Amino acid sequence: MDPQKVASKSTLKFILLAGLALGLCFGIVSCVVPFLSPQQDSPDKPAVEYTLPEDPLQSRECGKCHSKIFNLLKAKGGRHKIVCRRCHVQFHAYNPKKDNYEESLPKCSQCHSKPHGDRLILCTNCHQQPHTPKEILVSSTLSLNCDSCHAAIDKEIKIFITQHSNFYCSICHHTKHGYKPECMECHMPHSEDMSQPDCLKCHNPHQALQVRYPADIKNTTCAICHNMAYTMLIESGTKHAVFRCTKCHPEKHRTIETCQSCHNPHDKTIIDHNKLCGTCHGIAHSLII
Description:
With 289 residues, this protein is mainly alpha-helical.
């Protein structure tokens, strides 16, 4: 027999057997796989999710996509730290073709009427980020309408005229609403060791020249401005030197108690003849005895 014919027959048998084996494998797989893989939903049989009752959307779910807003509310939301759906009654309603961005946003009037009166009705002029409602950056609207909320302070600074009266509030209260400046941002301190609380012991910034102080303020604090009087008092060696300055100069700067509030050493004739105690005794900081 021809060797080539024998080889051809062997090859043909191998191909037939291989094809048969491959066909059997595909048949087995086609029978088994449907039982191993999930069944495809038919049009008349919805997925399981659609058979369950619908739960209201939770704020934490909003935060999965709107993490920046969620974290702003979490950190500085104040009273706006409420369920998102309370403000966003409708959501994902923006359509660029309709350009309905303003229409789709919640309105402040849903909860607020006119908390700042009729003058300030455009909330976003001041509350630029509603998710941090108390973080109010300085704007022209804010700077020109401080008196609508701070009427008493506005009146105060106009009655007690100082250089501060010539400025907009935002010159000192710059950057954001509620910012309280250090006096040393503009003023040189009376001494190197003075701090902001020391300034406020005597000066109310809205009536800065009406100097008032507590009864227990130290004499050394008074000495910063009145060093000559303080030195004279210490060196006098009199009983006056042991008292606080506020005993004779109580509460308000330039207040001077009369000598008679503490002393009555002479009879009426001498007092009537010499109206001023200083005629004989000199000034109270350095008595002539």
